[in-house]
């Protein structure tokens, strides 16, 4: 940014990211959108933490071949890391316009990608436990929730871009950007709520079914300690992300520069650490380790069980047709000729 001679400014001068090169008597930190210089040690810790969890998630995904989950969660962690690097730069100069735009866009978008990873787990949990206990076909979970979450991502990205481009002096454009971000976050809360409702309903039904019939399909996995730990980790990550989104609604409701937005402690606790906890749980309780059924190799190994049980596609609930006949598979279709190993 070009240096400005503050002593020659007109009497009606108003501090903005375009007119203030750094903190000075005419450009106090209180006049910035955040109203404070971010705490340097805290934001360094957060940037390192998100970067570390992103690397762990990516390496675990490559090792266990949980491609979709690891890619989206690692991308979310990397965005968060970039956002907190921006806040580190703001701690050195609260009027750094580029750093301000960086932290707005990255910190708004990062958690949305983390949510995508969370949504991808439910389908595999239902297929591996007991698909018949689900109120909807397992394949419909990602078909609904992933596009819905991507819609939240796009809306918030548009809002963040508009707000970042507006600066502090284009207040009308800034308000429009704020409203767009708000719409994306509200939609994200609704999507998270629907996901939590369906996941909770399924787990309650499964628990009740296993209590009534201990030998029911999936009971061995349900009792597995690693799998139970995985469920608790997913639940903790979900709760942390939901708290973060609710806080974001309250923070954005008052517009840019409101008293909630300018309270650093609440931002660090309800935004930064909530997302860090979620990313940490998803990294340390990786599905490929605690829930191997979600890994690519294990799914390929269990394809017969995962895709077809008794002639029924467990992902869609529809009867599978035998090739060239148009009829549903029957027990006789799977009988073997003695000594040939071929279906009749």
From TrEMBL:
Residues 301-344 are annotated as: Disordered. Its main location: membrane. Residues 333-344 have a biased composition (Basic and acidic residues). It holds the Pfam family RTA1. InterPro entries: RTA1. Keywords: Membrane, Transmembrane, Transmembrane helix. It is found in: Membrane. It is a multi-pass membrane protein. The chain crosses the membrane at residues 44-62, 69-90, 102-122, 143-167, 179-204, 230-250, 270-291. This is Sphingoid long-chain base transporter. It comes from Podospora pseudoanserina.
């Amino acid at each position: 940014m070009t240096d400005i001679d503050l002593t020659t400014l007109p009497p009606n001068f108003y501090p903005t990211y375009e007119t203030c090169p750094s903190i000075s008597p005419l450009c106090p930190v209180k006049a910035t959108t955040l109203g404070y210089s971010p705490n340097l040690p805290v934001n360094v810790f957060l940037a390192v933490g998100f970067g570390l969890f992103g690397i762990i998630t990516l390496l675990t995904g490559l090792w266990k071949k949980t491609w979709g989950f690891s890619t989206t969660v690692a991308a979310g962690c990397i965005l968060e890391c970039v956002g907190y690097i921006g806040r580190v730069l703001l701690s050195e100069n609260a009027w750094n316009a580029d750093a301000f735009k960086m932290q707005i866009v990255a910190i708004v978008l990062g958690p949305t990608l983390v949510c995508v990873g969370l949504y991808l787990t439910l389908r595999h949990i239902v297929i591996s436990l007991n698909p018949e206990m689900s109120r909807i076909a397992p394949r419909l979970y990602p078909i609904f929730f992933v596009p819905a979450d991507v819609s939240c991502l796009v809306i918030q990205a548009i809002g963040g871009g508009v707000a970042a481009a507006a600066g502090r002096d284009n207040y009308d454009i800034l308000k429009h950007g704020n409203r767009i971000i708000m719409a994306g976050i509200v939609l994200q809360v609704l999507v998270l709520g629907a996901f939590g409702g369906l996941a909770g309903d399924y787990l309650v039904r499964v628990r009740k079914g296993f209590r009534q019939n201990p030998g029911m399909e999936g009971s061995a996995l349900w009792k597995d300690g690693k799998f139970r730990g995985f469920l608790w980790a997913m639940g903790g990550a979900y709760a942390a992300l939901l708290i973060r989104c609710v806080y974001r609604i309250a923070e954005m409701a008052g517009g840019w520069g409101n008293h909630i937005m300018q309270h650093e402690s609440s931002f660090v606790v309800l935004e930064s650490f909530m997302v860090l906890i979620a990313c940490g749980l998803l990294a340390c309780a990786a599905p490929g380790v605690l829930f191997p059924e979600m890994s690519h190799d294990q799914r390929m190994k269990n394809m017969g069980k995962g895709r077809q049980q008794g002639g029924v596609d467990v992902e869609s609930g529809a009867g599978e047709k035998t090739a060239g006949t148009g009829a549903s598979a029957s027990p006789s279709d799977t009988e073997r000729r003695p000594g040939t190993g071929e279906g009749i």
